[in-house]
Amino acid sequence: MNNEQKLKAAFIEALGLNESTNVEALTYNSIPEWDSIAHMALVAQLDDQFDIMLDTDDIIDISSFEKAKEVLSKYEVEFV
Amino acid sequence: MISLKGKCIFVTGASRGIGRQAAIMLAAAGADLALAARDQEVLTSLQQHIEATYGSHVLTLAYDIQDEQATKEAFRQIKKQFGRLDGLVNNAGILESRLLGMIDDSSIQQTLSVNLAASIIHLQYAARLMKPQRSGSIVNLSSIMGTHGSEGQVLYSASKAGIIGATRSASKELASYGIRVNAIAPGFIRTDLATGLSEEKYNERLDSIKMGRIGEPEDVAGTILFLCSELSTYITGQIIGVDGGMVI
């Protein structure tokens, strides 16, 4: 599984989404599943999946799938 | 017999007083420990004592709790070494007695930063490690000054009252994850903070304690041990006084 796939899996698991959901199109609070509680679950998934510990500012910054990739890049998680 | 075998507990302000005694009692119950303080030498000496006496694994973390990056790194190291966190004892703090008119801005910033902001940040990171395992116990150290207030303690009381608010709110937010958050409000305890008082002030404090004696660090550490153990699994959001019936 590459990092993009791991990130998608983290979104699906943390937000409790259907496998077929287009996660690239999601933005924070745009669906009922992505509320502040689910957001913290997502953060826990990202910490675990990529063996990092996100800064609070970065946690707040993750407002979409693309933004998550951008933030994770700061932690040396590479996306091709 | 309380057993904390297989549990990892993080104690801040572990180099002396209540934090040191809590570390020893938690290790005696079988817990592995992460111990934080600023002085590496003192931490190493405590680590050696605990490992030799109780066989616990001890990770020492020398840093200033006001430094958020260092705090984050401490939690990363705990995750790396132990893979889990079962308890946080948010103990580190400072006490500066000043009458209201003598409180300057730098004292306000310093006391709130150490006693309140740093505790909240530690609570925040601890909760992040505990949430995936859906269990954990966080023990915040407040004070009788935070529950009752005292002359010359406006700043310290405010910081410790803040701990009570943080404890109650966090307990509500984290209960559904199986994480308990409680606070202890010690009275007059034999620590460096107490022994630095003038004889007159010391005796005055002693006279206000119904049980007629100063509290020992063991008295508070025993309550910490209880709150970190399986004996308190249905207790959260509580502020437990450990004060011998002190009246202020």
UniProtKB/TrEMBL annotation, chain A:
It comes from Paenibacillus hunanensis. It comes from the Bacteria. This is Acyl carrier protein.
TrEMBL record, chain B:
Residues 7-187 form the Ketoreductase domain. The keyword Oxidoreductase applies. It comes from the Bacteria. Its EC number is 1.1.1.100. InterPro entries: KR_dom, NAD(P)-bd_dom_sf, SDR_fam. The keyword Oxidoreductase applies. One of its GO terms (molecular function) is 3-oxoacyl-[acyl-carrier-protein] reductase (NADPH) activity. Keywords: Oxidoreductase. Belongs to the short-chain dehydrogenases/reductases (SDR) family. NCBIfam families: PRK07231.1. This is 3-oxoacyl-[acyl-carrier protein] reductase. It comes from Paenibacillus hunanensis.
